[in-house]
Design a protein that fits this description.
By secondary structure, the chain is mainly beta. Helix content is about 0%, strand content about 50%. The strands form five sheets. Strands 8, 10, 11, 13, 18, 19, 20 and 23 form an eight-stranded antiparallel beta sheet that branches. Strands 9, 12, 14, 15, 16, 17, 21 and 22 form an eight-stranded antiparallel beta sheet that branches. Strands 1, 4, 7, 24 and 25 form a five-stranded antiparallel beta sheet that branches. The longest helix is centred in the first third of the chain and has 5 residues. It is elongated. The chain starts with 8 loop residues before the first strand and ends with a strand.
């Protein structure tokens, strides 16, 4: 392994293959904690080795120099969430790579487009307050359905991360929609953050011309899906709080889908509404008077048995040593050790 130039430490990691077979261009979610601890599946502790948090973290292939694309979804002073793009996870072998940290000169390399693909993710960090969503200055080309007094716009007053989000406003029963094209398949999940602000009906729709996924937050904050009749999941949203939502295990031919809310599955093999609308699009709609916000929309690769982070190695120092040198002289040799007692040379 050739270490990445300019970084102080590196550590190996593995990604355990999926029994569903080899995977390509798979996004892997990783929680990174700045302080000390024991790294485990999906969680990496940097053990205070970052000196330019959160910019001095890089991931590479097993050669130590071929960079892996990543998107830093959110962070604060102590931790954050990264998504890594792994180009190939073999089966039955595992993927091996390295994380590098500790570079005071590092600049921001987070990139939502290279990690998720053009048109498949948007964090709304573009445009100005009150810009119409179909201005499409971000990574997704958005379209809208908005009648007078109903809006789908960039909003700088609310955001989950960064400085902006998508605001959908419905007035007097006039719905507002923001949508983008996504070819229908079975190998993807749709993950996003939502904030239900008042009496709105926050609707998610995705269809194939025959069946439509129809999931929504009711004005009473009930999480429900609709297939011609309303089904209450028994779970509720929290008013004016950003919460994570994911739709996966999508099979519109069957039809069925699963719904996850803040990490908990709340609907398994939910049914679909019969209809020809929302064909090949992902649609966010506000269908009831009020406002709700959407942020950090990610369309990611998905398989039923997902690959997972496996074994983490130990930290290896990769920068030239510039600290103090302690020389001792035993009876038959001279040992040169650093300040930590690590043997450097024998003379």
């Amino acid at each position: 392994m050739n270490p990445l130039t300019g970084y102080n430490y590196c550590k190996s990691f593995t990604i355990v293959h999926s029994p569903d077979g080899s995977q390509s261009n798979y996004q892997m979610k990783l929680t990174i904690i700045r302080g000390a601890g024991t790294s485990s599946t999906g969680t990496l502790y940097l053990d205070n080795k970052s000196i330019n948090w959160p910019l001095d973290i890089r991931f590479t292939q097993s050669d130590g120099v071929t960079l892996l694309p990543f998107y830093r979804r959110e962070y604060d002073a102590t931790d954050g969430t990264w998504w890594l793009l792994i180009d190939s996870i073999p089966d039955p072998a595992n993927f091996t790579g390295y994380v590098h940290v500790g570079n005071a000169a590092a600049t921001d390399a987070s990139n939502i487009s290279t990690t998720f693909g053009v048109g498949m993710a948007d964090d709304f960090e573009w445009g100005s307050d009150e810009d119409e969503i179909d201005t499409s200055g971000g990574n997704i080309t958005w379209a809208k359905i908005a009648v007078p007094n109903a809006y789908a716009r960039i909003d700088t007053a609310q955001c989950w991360q960064g400085t902006r989000s998508l605001r959908l406003t419905c007035v007097a029963g006039k719905p507002a929609d923001a949508y983008f094209t996504k070819a229908v398949g079975t190998d993807y999940a749709i993950n996003f953050m939502v904030r239900h602000d008042n009496d709105s009906q926050a609707v998610f729709l995705h269809g194939n011309g025959t069946h439509i996924i129809y999931a929504y937050i009711s004005p009473a904050l009930d999480l429900e899906w609709y297939d011609g009749a309303n089904t209450d999941t028994g779970f509720n949203a929290t008013v004016s709080v950003w919460e994570e939502q994911e739709i996966n295990d999508i099979n519109l031919a069957t039809p069925k889908w699963d719904w996850w809310w803040t990490g908990t599955k709340i609907a398994n093999d939910a049914l679909c509404l019969h209809g020809a609308t929302q064909n090949g699009v992902i649609d966010f709609e506000n269908a009831d008077p009020g406002t709700y916000h959407v942020d950090s929309v990610l369309v990611r690769k998905w398989t039923a048995n997902e690959p997972a982070f496996g074994v983490w190695g130990t930290w290896e120092r990769i920068s030239p040593y510039t600290g103090p040198i302690i020389i001792t002289r035993p009876k038959y040799k001279i040992e040169v050790r650093d300040a930590n007692g690590v043997l450097k040379w024998v003379l």
